[in-house]
Amino acid sequence: MIQIAVLGYGVVGSGVLEVLQTNRESIDRRAGKEIRIKYVLDRREFAEDPVSSILVHDIEPILNDPDVKVVVEVMGGVEPAYTFVKEALLRGKSVVTSNKELVAKHGPELLQIAREKNINFLFEASVGGGIPIIRPLNQSLTADEIYEITGILNGTTNFILTKMKEEGLPFETVLKEAQDLGYAERNPEADVEGHDACRKIAILSSLAFGMHVDFEDIDTEGITKISQVDMAYAAKMDREIKLVATSKKKDHEVWARVSPVLLHMDHPLSNVHGVFNAIYVKGNVIGDVMFYGKGAGKLPTASAVVADIIDAVKHLQRNIMAFWSTEKMELLDIRHAPAQYFIRIAYTDVKVAMDLVENLFGKVDFIQLKEATDEIGFITNEAIENELIEKIEKLSKSTGIKEVRNKIRVE
Ligand code: HSE
Question: How many whole angstroms separate alpha carbon 204 and alpha carbon 210?
Answer without folding.
Answer: 10
